Design the sequence.
């Protein structure tokens, strides 16, 4: 077992546990903290995949900026413990868990008990290169210029949407 | 580095550029004319029409745009007649939606927000235009998000009613979940094939030996995202709540344009990725991942049955039309599951007709709701006598939605059923037919309330102005004309089924 | 004029458009009536000239197709909007436009003063338009278009007086019943069309029928197609078990009952079966089914007619019964006899209904024959024409009904068996009895209405002249189909005229045993004598010996109530079909699926709104999660299926 696999297992475990904790905690602020932990674990995973830029952006944008915003909102709203929907409907909870287990079992079957696909002739050597900011920038402005522009308009629409929804009720 | 291919590609995306320019223009105009916004709808209309001219200009032009530098045979966008046809559907319905909004009391109450309203509508238009011709999974995802995001906001736009906000939030929740699933599927598909371009994926699928189970898993997950857009079972649950809560103009738009874009995506995705070749009779040979036909048959029949049977009990017309539009998604899928050009022609014909009949029904429901403030079926009692023009027009639209002759809806269903019979799927045809019989009941019930129930003292004459009458007549003409003389639609559909790559 | 046959379709459409769009503006009843009637009248003339032209052609060239335009052309399915002009369609077209024209004229008088006078004429014209498409269409699709069109018009016209009550329910309910029952039939018809297309790759009449004659198609396939088509015919032509709508259809104005529910639309099923005669002839088992259903319908409807008191109800059951006769004829392979009866029946039944309308009109909407009496004194013209029609339907020798009914009875024996004949003859006796019970109670005896309240009077000329023309037709209409025993070998003109249409079917059917003329004459004499006896008995009982009727009724109380309640068929339907469906869909789909699962959480909670409004909001978010769970469940199930199938 080399270091990469050990690191992967650790980071993956942290990611899974923190995300489960995030959705099960009744208090939103604690949830948010677990979300930050989750983001960090994910960025670690990105690093393992030679995606340095994404890893850094993940930390700066999500763990940094967006989470701060989240926490601000949570504190401004002064939310208390959220009442759990499942408390009112136990059957629903059991149902949901059962389906989750079912899908999990299916995916596990998929990974472990079926014949693997052909390996891709992946360019491992180049992958370190392609994770750099320069490479990403070049790709974004050549091959992926259209998705990039689309993302721009997506953000514009989101801004307008946020503006509309956050305004008080129209008279 | 030679970047000329980007500028050359711009030739293929003129409609999209026009739509993008309109968004920006609308946002700016909203800031400039913040006192009086009467000009905004006209600008929006002009923008749509210009976009439409570029779309028409694109007819019979085909080619890839935004080529990949690694594999310059394929590109991000596939411009072809199939896409142009669906884009035209989007443009026509957008024009109608501007008309809807102009006559909608809900929208007219919020004139100071018109800039954002139309900017978001253009967000939807841009999203749909890109979605229709996108041939790259990343672009597909992004344009779908652009479409969804704009529609979430529009669904909750009026905010006058709590229903509207609730609709918006629910829409967002479902949308987030299903696009999340779709992204998961995309990532698996990328992991299997090493590309996000549909054409390269298709080539990879045909040459490599892959774990079919994993491939199937990714397809199912991607279908979850698309299925949510076209509101097919079991991803349809959001539809009634959102359609009921959203302003009628948006509901109508979602039920036609958004659905058309979703169908275009579904067809393009399946055809370019999994169809290996098309034989002389126009039958598609699919890559054997799993039993495509059975899966789509089950989904299609489930969708129409759930839609129709739940619609039976609705007393709110908007909600009833929402369930009916779910059922129509089921009918439309019939055209896909035969996997032949015949079926594709049927879908194009059906959409052309569905555009007019569904928008027509919504428009009249809106005009009536403007006056009575309600969409409850009891408020339609005796309406056929008090406002006979509205009553008769609504009756025609509903009869057409049922699929009875001599309206165009009959032709749409007829071609779908012919495609089914041609593919020797008699059982499916019979179940679908039984479904239309069921649908008859709830459509005709409206007619019964309008024409066979005496007006109550509540019933008032609905005043109509010239513009409203004109809009209704413009939608009535195709329904009645194509019901009898429909070779133009059929010819049009026949020449617009070419998807790039075949 | 054959080439201009499309005018007979376009003119009524034009009339519909003019009256439908401008009717409320015109306001002048006369003008509306003239527009409505003249379009049908001119259509009649066009048909008449086309008929004359066709008669002039040699027998093998009498089938002409008038193509208008190609309607759809997909995947080997080529459907033209074309009209088939042949002896069969011309015969039907003559009846529809001819009788239709008279009824239009009559309606000018009958509907006088109705607030929706224009609408009535618009609907009537629309009906003629649809009916002509049904008759003239040269393929199953055009026929089906007309088929649905007449169904729609029937629905609209039954519900014409939508504010009124009808029996236990309302007029709209009666209209809805007709519509729904017809849909069951239509569904069968559609299935039949599907099968025809998948078997013969065509829906064109001439194509399908010529293929049906020579293609190696199994009898089972023919049987299935024929059964589905017959289900369609049952719905439209009110045969067991789908006849329940016709008596309720009497909720419509009387001219509508005469035109649609007696003379024309209800015979569409007969026409369709006759048109597809070759398919039926290729499925002998189904032919027997048709004959038996026809016979049973004829008999049971006649027994119900014996005890009804509503004048229109009696006539309605009589129509069902006569339609049964027609199917009996078709079932034994006597297609031309069936069509012949369609024609004569159109004359005398339209006359009976219009006469009934005239009576109802003058009796201030009173329809109970027990409250009539001695009306011959007040309305002599109606009386004479009505009695002629009653004699005709009873098969009085020399009148039209005699020839057609006798022909059917004869073939039911010659091509069928003695049992068919016996039931048919008994039905004829019953028919004669209930018709003259009706005549006697209405026109003879003493006035049983309050003379100070009601002042019966003869109807205006615009109503009585159509009656007289129809009476004339009811008398002489039969002489074009004089049976061969009177007219000699091949002397039946009507039979020879339709011969080319049914030739293929005749060839295909088994050869029947030969019978002597003596047998025919003996059977004829027996049935005629019995019918005359029944007429006399009815007259005597209901004028002088009314106590006989009452005694019999009280003696056979069980039978009487059963008949009076129409064998409880409606109740049986209610109990066996309607209730379970209502309950099922309500309980299972609506109450359980939507209310319990979906709305049970959202809207079911809405009833608790006043209790805790905060709970509702949580419930609503709960629903969202529930939906998402279902979504995931769907994916999980599909995955399961894929894992298992790979």
Sequence:
């Amino acid at each position: 077992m080399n270091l990469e696999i050990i690191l992967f297992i650790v980071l993956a475990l942290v990611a899974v546990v923190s995300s489960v904790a995030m959705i099960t905690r009744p208090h939103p602020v604690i949830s948010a903290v677990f979300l930050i932990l989750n983001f960090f674990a994910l960025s670690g995973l990105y690093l393992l995949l030679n995606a340095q830029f994404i890893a850094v952006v993940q930390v700066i944008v999500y763990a940094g900026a967006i989470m701060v915003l989240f926490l601000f909102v949570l504190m401004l709203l002064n939310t208390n413990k959220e009442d759990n929907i499942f408390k009112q409907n136990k059957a629903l909870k059991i149902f949901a868990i059962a389906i989750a287990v079912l899908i999990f079992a299916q995916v596990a079957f998929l990974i472990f008990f079926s014949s693997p696909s052909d390996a891709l002739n992946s360019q491992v050597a180049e992958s370190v290169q392609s994770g750099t900011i320069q490479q990403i920038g070049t790709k974004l402005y050549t091959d992926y210029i259209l998705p990039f522009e689309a993302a721009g308009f997506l953000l514009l629409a989101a801004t307008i949407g946020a503006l509309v929804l956050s305004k008080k009720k129209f008279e | 580095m030679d970047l000329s291919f980007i500028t050359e590609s711009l030739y293929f995306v003129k409609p999209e550029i026009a739509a993008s320019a309109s968004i920006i223009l609308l946002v700016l105009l909203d800031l400039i004319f913040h006192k009086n916004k009467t000009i905004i709808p006209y600008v929006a209309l002009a923008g749509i029409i210009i976009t439409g001219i570029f779309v028409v200009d694109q007819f019979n032009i085909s080619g890839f745009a935004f080529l990949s530098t690694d594999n310059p045979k394929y590109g991000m966008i596939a411009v072809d007649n199939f896409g142009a046809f669906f884009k035209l559907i989007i443009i026509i319905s957008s024009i109608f939606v501007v008309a809807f909004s102009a006559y909608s009391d809900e929208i007219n109450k919020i004139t100071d927000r018109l800039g954002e309203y139309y900017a978001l509508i253009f967000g939807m238009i841009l999203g749909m235009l890109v979605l229709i011709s996108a041939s790259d999974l990343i672009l597909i995802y992004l344009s779908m998000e652009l479409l969804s995001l704009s529609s979430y906001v529009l669904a909750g736009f009026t905010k006058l009613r709590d229903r509207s906000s609730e609709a918006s939030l629910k829409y967002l929740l479902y949308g987030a979940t299903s696009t999340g699933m779709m992204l998961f599927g995309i990532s698996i598909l990328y992991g299997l094939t090493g590309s996000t371009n549909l054409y390269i994926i298709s080539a990879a699928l045909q040459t490599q030996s892959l774990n079919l189970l994993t491939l199937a898993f990714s397809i199912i997950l991607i279908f979850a995202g698309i299925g949510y857009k076209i509101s097919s079972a079991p991803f349809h649950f959001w539809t009634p709540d959102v359609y009921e809560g959203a302003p009628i103009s948006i509901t109508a738009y979602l039920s036609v344009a958004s659905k058309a874009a979703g169908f275009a995506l579904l067809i393009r995705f399946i055809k370019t990725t999994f169809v290996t070749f098309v034989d002389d009779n126009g039958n598609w040979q699919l890559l054997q991942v799993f039993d495509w036909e059975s899966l789509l048959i089950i989904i299609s029949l489930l969708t129409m049955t759930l839609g129709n049977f739940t619609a039976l009990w609705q007393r709110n017309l908007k909600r009833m039309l929402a369930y009916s539009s779910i059922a129509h998604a089921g009918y439309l899928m019939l055209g896909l599951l035969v996997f032949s050009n015949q079926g594709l022609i049927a879908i194009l014909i059906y959409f052309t007709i569905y555009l007019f009949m569904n928008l027509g029904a919504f428009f009249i429901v809106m005009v009536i709701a403007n006056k009575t403030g309600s969409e409850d079926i009891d408020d339609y009692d005796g309406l056929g006598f008090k406002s006979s023009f509205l009553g008769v027009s609504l009756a025609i639209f509903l009869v057409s939605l049922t699929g009875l002759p001599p309206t165009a809806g009959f032709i749409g269903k007829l071609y779908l059923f012919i495609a089914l019979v041609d593919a020797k799927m008699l059982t499916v045809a019979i179940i679908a037919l039984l479904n239309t019989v069921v649908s008859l009941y709830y459509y005709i019930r409206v007619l019964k309330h309008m024409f066979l129930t005496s007006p109550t003292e509540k019933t008032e004459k609905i005043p109509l102005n010239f513009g409203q009458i004109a809009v209704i007549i413009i939608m009535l003409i195709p329904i009645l004309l194509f019901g009898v003389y429909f070779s133009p639609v059929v010819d049009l559909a026949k020449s617009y089924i070419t998807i790039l790559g075949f | 004029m054959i080439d201009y046959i499309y005018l007979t379709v376009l003119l009524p459409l034009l009339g519909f458009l003019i009256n439908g769009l401008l009717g409320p503006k015109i306001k002048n009843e006369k003008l509306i009536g003239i527009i409505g009637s003249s379009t049908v009248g001119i259509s009649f003339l066009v048909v008449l000239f086309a008929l004359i032209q066709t008669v002039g052609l040699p027998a093998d060239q009498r089938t002409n197709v008038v193509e208008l335009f190609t309607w759809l052309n997909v995947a080997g399915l080529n459907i033209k909007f074309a009209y088939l002009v042949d002896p069969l369609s011309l015969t039907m077209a003559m009846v529809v436009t001819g009788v239709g024209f008279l009824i239009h004229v009559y309606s000018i008088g009958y509907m006088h003063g109705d607030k929706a006078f224009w609408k009535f004429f618009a609907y009537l014209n629309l009906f003629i338009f649809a009916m002509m498409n049904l008759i003239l269409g040269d393929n199953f699709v055009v026929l089906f278009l007309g088929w649905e069109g007449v169904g729609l018009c029937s629905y609209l016209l039954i519900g014409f007086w939508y504010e009124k009550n009808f029996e236990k329910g309302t007029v709209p309910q009666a209209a809805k019943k007709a519509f729904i029952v017809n849909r069951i039939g239509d569904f069968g018809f559609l299935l039949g069309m599907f099968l025809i297309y998948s078997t013969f790759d065509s829906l064109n009449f001439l194509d399908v029928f010529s293929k049906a004659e020579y293609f190696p198609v199994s009898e089972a396939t023919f049987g299935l197609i024929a059964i589905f088509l017959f289900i369609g015919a049952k719905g439209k032509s009110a045969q067991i078990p789908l006849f329940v709508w016709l008596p309720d259809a009497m909720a419509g104005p009387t001219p509508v009952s005469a035109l649609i529910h007696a003379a024309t639309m209800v015979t569409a099923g007969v026409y369709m079966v006759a048109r597809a005669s070759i398919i039926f002839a290729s499925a002998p088992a189904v032919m027997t089914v048709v004959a038996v259903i026809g016979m049973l319908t004829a008999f049971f409807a006649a027994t119900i007619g014996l005890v009804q008191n509503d004048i229109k109800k009696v006539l309605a059951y009589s129509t069902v019964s006569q339609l049964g006769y027609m199917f009996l004829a078709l079932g034994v392979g006597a297609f031309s006899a069936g069509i012949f009866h369609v024609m004569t029946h159109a004359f005398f039944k339209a006359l009976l209904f219009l006469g009934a309308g005239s009576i109802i009109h003058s009796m201030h909407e009173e329809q109970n024959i027990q409250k009539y009496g001695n009306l011959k004194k007040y309305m002599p013209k109606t009386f004479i024409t009505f009695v002629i029609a009653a004699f005709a339907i009873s098969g009085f020798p020399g009148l039209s009904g005699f020839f057609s009914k006798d022909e059917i009875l004869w073939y039911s024996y010659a091509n069928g068996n003695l049992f068919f004949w016996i039931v048919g003859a008994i039905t004829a006796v019953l028919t004669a009895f209930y018709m003259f019970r009706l005549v006697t109670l209405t026109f003879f005896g003493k006035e049983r209405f309050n003379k100070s309240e009601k002042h019966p009077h003869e109807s205006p000329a615009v109503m009585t002249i159509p009656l007289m023309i129809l009476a004339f037709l009811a008398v002489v209409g039969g002489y074009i189909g004089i049976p061969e025993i009177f007219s000699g070998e091949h002397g039946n003109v009507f039979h020879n005229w339709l011969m080319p249409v049914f030739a293929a079917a005749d060839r295909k059917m088994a050869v029947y045993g030969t019978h002597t003329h003596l047998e025919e004459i003996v059977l004829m004499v027996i049935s005629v004598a019995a019918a005359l006896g029944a007429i006399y008995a009815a007259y005597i009982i209901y004028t002088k010996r009314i106590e006989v009727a009452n005694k019999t009724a009280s003696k056979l109380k069980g039978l009487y109530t059963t008949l009076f309640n129409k064998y409880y068929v409606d109740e049986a339907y209610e109990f066996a079909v309607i209730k379970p469906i209502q309950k099922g869909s309500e309980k299972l789909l609506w109450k359980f699926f939507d209310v319990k699962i979906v709305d049970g959480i959202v809207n079911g909670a809405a009833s608790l709104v006043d209790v805790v409004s905060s709970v509702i909001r949580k419930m609503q978010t709960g629903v969202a999660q529930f939906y998402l769970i279902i979504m995931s469940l769907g994916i999980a199930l599909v995955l399961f299926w894929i894992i298992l199938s790979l």
About this structure: Residues 132-171 of chain A form one domain. DSSP finds eight helices and no strands in chain A. The interface with chain B takes residues 106-107, 110, 114-118, 120, 122, 138, 142-147, 149-151, 153-154, 156-158, 160-161, 163-165, 169-170 of chain A (CB under 8 Å).
